[in-house]
Write a structure and sequence with these properties.
Elements lengths: L16 H9 L4 H12 L4 H20 L4 H29 L15
Helix pairs in contact: 2-3, 2-4, 3-4
């Protein structure tokens, strides 16, 4: 049977400064996160537009800086497009049901009184 070896300094969680810098450079892009968040929230279509715009900007920045989050940026763009189409459909239905009354709301259909 083998005996357990005592822990060495390398296994104790100590990371040299070069490794710390590498992990800091590999953080997830905040623009990509906000792209997805705003796309999901929608805000009547405005959040979708902001999510699409932030997703495109995040993809450009990720390509330049090497940050993580490319998939989040793409998801933000796709979800933003889908929620924008749904918001446009929603506003179209609202406009059809509330608009176009033709002036009938003023009591004009009462037989000429």
């Amino acid at each position: 049977m083998s005996r357990p070896q005592p822990a060495t300094r390398d296994e104790s969680g100590y990371a040299p400064p070069a490794a710390q810098r590498t992990t800091q450079a590999q953080r997830t892009s905040r623009m990509a996160i906000w792209s997805l968040v705003l796309s999901v929230i929608t805000l009547g279509g405005l959040g979708s537009l902001a999510g699409i715009w932030l997703g495109i900007a995040a993809r450009r920045r990720i390509a330049e800086t090497g940050e993580r989050g490319r998939g989040l940026a793409v998801a933000g763009i796709i979800v933003g497009v889908v929620t924008l189409v749904l918001a446009i459909g929603y506003w179209a239905v609202i406009a059809m049901h509330t608009g176009g009354a033709g002036g009938a709301g003023g009591g004009a259909g009462g037989g000429g009184y």
